[in-house]
Amino acid sequence: MRRLDQLLANLGYCSRSEARDWVGSGAVTVRGEEADDVGARVSAADVRIDGEPLDHPDGLLLLLHKPLGLVCSHELREGPNVYSLLPARWQRRNPQVTSVGRLDKDTSGLILLTDQSPLVHRLTSPKHKVPKVYRATVDRDLGAELVPLFASGTLVLDAETDPCAPAELKIIAPREAELTLIEGRYHQVRRMFATGGATVLTLQRERFGPLDLGDLAPGKWRELPLDFFTRAPTGAA
Ligand code: URA
Question: What pLDDT is recorded for position 127?
Answer without folding.
Answer: 87
